[in-house]
Amino acid sequence: MQKTDVLIIGSSAAGLVAAATAKTSYPQKSVTVLRMKGKTLVPCGIPYAFSTVEKTDNNVIPVEGQFEKLGISLLEDKAVSIDRGKKECRLESGETITYERLVLATGSVPFIPSWLKGADLKNVFTVPKDKAYLDKMQETLKNCRSVVTIGAGFIGVELSDELNKSGLDVTLVEKLPHILGKAFDEKTASKAEEILKNTGVKVMTGAGVKEIKGTGKVEEVLLDNGESIKADAVVLAMGYRPNTGLASDAGLPLNEFGAVKVDEYLRTEDENIFAVGDCAEKKDFVTRKSIGTMLASTACAEARIAGMNLFKLSLVKTFSGTISIFATALGEDAFGVAGLTESRALEEGFDIITGEFEGPDKHPGKLPGMKKQTVKLIVGKEAGIILGGEITGGLSIGELTNALGFIIQNRMDINAVLVSQIGTHPLLTASPAAYPLLKAAEDAAKKKMGLCSC
User: Fold this and answer.
1) How far apart are CA 413 and CA 441, in angstroms?
2) Which of 43, 247, 387, 419 has fewest C-beta within 10 Å?
3) pLDDT computed for residue 192 by the predictor
């Protein structure tokens, strides 16, 4: 029987950060990470292994070296059961390991609808965080000419873009009116869709999939509108579900999304067991409702908080809710969102105003590589608190989207943004006289004061 003070099940983003934070916060404690065999991939980089970075070997997190440097033990095995009373975890190898604190970072698994006929045909793929599976998938796709991707969330869109770059004939099918329709408002989603179409990806929206057909192997995809698409392969990018079988079997409560219920310290019902990342419950920062958002950035934030609170709770180190900060890029065009979109805010019943501004992301605007940058803020009308926003432009919008996340998390209002100080440089940022984030706040302030009828 093995023994450790802290046992972390899972070595992806959440597991890695939880282990590092635990060892840093409690250096005298022994920390062990349990991972199934195989290298750990950068989760958000998986689509890019199909073209931009060429192979999964170039999308690996070097956890082994990082754990060794920090004095963290890495054990390759699979957890099969947890005995909460004895504080033991039984492994597939037959070994048992005891713990004082357990962190579940078991992630998520691709969703395959039970009603989708033909999902078991050869050359039907999902997109798991499994290097061996993805390597085989990539080898198979090299011998294909046409691929249908089902589902136009971030993974579906990014993978379709990458497969198109690799020379495949790609059709992306989405039942919503636009790609990325759950993340962005219609205007932004429409812009992203047009850019993707211009790359050569065929986009079919407003159409669901009825059946995948073929004799042993994929031959065509039948849509619910009666159309059919010939295909050598199909990629199911229809979302993910929390990987919580281990937790459920141990008697830990799950929420309506199948995620492990946790408190603001990321503790489960069992005070000795924490859950972080895709397997853990998420509540929206603004609405406080349970949501199914799964992001590596959120997972890492949860993991840091859990790691700091393992043996000593801190009132100032708690997780206050998921802000849902997304960003993606199609070529040189990028799209970011943080917090509530306008449509979501209205659906939730918030009384809002919006502020919007478009301007160059360099100054002067004639500098090489300049892209127009648009910032849209969603603001509570009564107090002026910023609830969310969308940013489009060039690749420079990534960190600005993160800055918007900081603004939302600190519940800043438009006045606080208007008096904020910024640093600028002609090659790196928009002009200080027309900084889109500040100008969007200015636009919202005018509307709040009734000075603008637009």
Assistant:
1) 9
2) 419
3) 97
Beta-bridged to residue 357, according to DSSP, are: 375
- Which whole number is the average pLDDT over 242-256? 98
Answer whether 362's CB lies under 8 Å from 323's CB. Answer: no
What architecture is domain 124-238?
3-Layer(bba) Sandwich (3.50)
Residues 13-58 pLDDT 10s: 999 999 999 999 999 999 999 998 788 999 999 999 999 999 999 9
2-109+241-309: CATH superfamily: FAD/NAD(P)-binding domain (3.50.50.60)
Buried b / exposed e across 54-75, counting CB within 10 Å, b at 16+?
eebeebbbebeeebeeeebebb
Centre a 10 Å sphere on the Cβ of residue 316 and count the other Cβ atoms it contains: 5
227: left (phi > 0), else alpha (psi -120 to 50), else beta?
A: beta
Q: What confidence tens digit (pLDDT) does each residue in 261-304 have?
A: 999 999 999 999 999 999 999 999 999 999 999 999 999 999 99
Burial of 348 (0-12, 13-18, 19+ CB in 10 A): middle
What span, in angstroms and rounded, lies between the C-alpha atoms of 320 and 302?
10
Same fold, 2-109+241-309 and 124-238: yes
3-state helix, strand, coil in the chain (%, to 5): 30, 30, 45
Alpha-carbon gap, residue 150 to 135, rounded angstroms: 20
Give the pLDDT of residue 300: 95
| pTM summary value | 0.94
Q: Look at domain 326-448 and name its CATH class.
A: alpha beta
Q: State both tokens at 308.
A: 């700091």
| The two structure tokens encoding residue 231 | 């295909």
What gap in Å lies between CA 362 and CA 360, rounded to an integer?
Answer: 5
Q: Find the distance separating the first CA and the last CA of the chain, reported in whole Å.
A: 70
Tokens of 223: 């849509």
pLDDT range class, residue 454, cuts 50, 70, 90: low
Q: Does residue 133 sit in helix, strand or coil?
A: helix
Q: What percent of the chain has pLDDT over 70?
A: 99
Determine phi and psi for 74, rounding to 5 degrees: -115, 125
CA dist 226 and 316 (Å) reads 56
